[in-house]
Design brief:
47% of the residues lie in helices and 12% in strands. The chain is an alpha+beta fold. The mean pLDDT is 97. The chain has two domains: 2-163 and 225-241, NADH Oxidase (3-Layer(aba) Sandwich); 172-222, no CATH class. The protein has a four-stranded antiparallel β-sheet with strand order 1-2-4-3, with helices on both faces. The chain has helices at residues 2-5, 20-31, 50-56, 65-68, 80-88, 98-121, 136-143, 186-197, 200-209, 214-222, 225-241, and strands at residues 42-47, 71-78, 125-129, 149-158.
């Protein structure tokens, strides 16, 4: 629990390698995550070779942490391995569809969180890279992923150079609903975002971007509709290419 409440994203890393026994423990922790039907519909590609990390860097918008961190883990939804097992046993797999991409994505994300928690207990820092789904088609080529395997998220991992402050979160009441979903009134929206909107960090961002509120920063700077639509199309095309949309 202490590890959970101290979590923060680390974007600067020392060059020190992660000892193999610790890395093995982290990966073993990942495999103990909950999984659909005990099928483990995921694979983890662990990249430590500087050449591979350099090749992956543009896929993550050349963020320095991709090449600085000693380990880059790409978590993938993977029906390929289970399909092979079924076929070798004379069973006909029926997992080449969107439902089983969702199941594989859930499995991969659960495994990634287990890996992250174990890493942080050893004093390591991590950062999730949302850019994975933006450029998944290029990652498929670099990591030589076969049909039935698609990247879902990436985690960089290593020893932090510093310890940034905790990132704020919305209050628990913002995300928890009791028994049924309770929709938000305008007054509730104002109350739930009040602390974040009035923070020094938000004031700095507004000044830097020349915009009147934080919501406009998200919609006009960080996650623009035109980008969202384009990345969605690219990822859906890749789902078809990788065999998740046949049925």
């Amino acid at each position: 629990m202490e590890t959970i409440f101290k979590h923060r994203s680390i974007r600067r890393y020392k060059p020190d390698a992660i000892p193999e026994n610790i890395l093995d423990r982290i990966l073993e922790a990942a495999t103990r995550a909950s999984t659909t039907g005990n099928m483990q519909l995921y694979s983890i590609v662990v990249s430590t070779d500087p050449k591979v990390k350099q090749a992956l860097s543009p896929c993550h918008f050349n963020q320095p942490m991709v090449t600085e961190a000693p380990v880059v883990m790409t978590f993938c939804a993977d029906i390929h391995r289970f399909d092979l097992w079924c076929e070798q046993r004379g069973a006909e797999p029926g997992y080449d569809n969107f439902l089983w991409f969702v199941n594989g994505a859930i499995d991969a994300l659960l495994a990634s969180q287990n890996a992250v928690l174990e890493a942080e207990t050893h004093g390591l820092g991590i950062c999730y890279l949302g850019t994975t789904t933006y450029t998944a088609d290029k990652i498929v080529e670099i990591l030589r992923l076969p049909k039935g395997v698609i990247p879902v998220t990436t985690v960089v991992m290593g020893y932090p150079t510093d310890c940034p402050p905790l990132t704020d979160r919305l209050p628990v009441e913002a995300v928890v609903h009791r028994d049924t979903y309770h929709d938000y009134t305008p007054e509730a929206i104002d109350r739930l975002w009040a602390e974040r909107e009035n923070s020094d960090e938000t004031k700095r961002l507004l000044a830097e971007n020349g915009l009147p509120n934080l919501a406009r920063i998200f919609t006009e700077r960080r996650y623009r509709k035109e980008d969202n639509v384009q990345f969605s199309r690219t990822y859906l095309d890749l789902l078809r290419k990788q065999g998740f949309m046949k049925q």
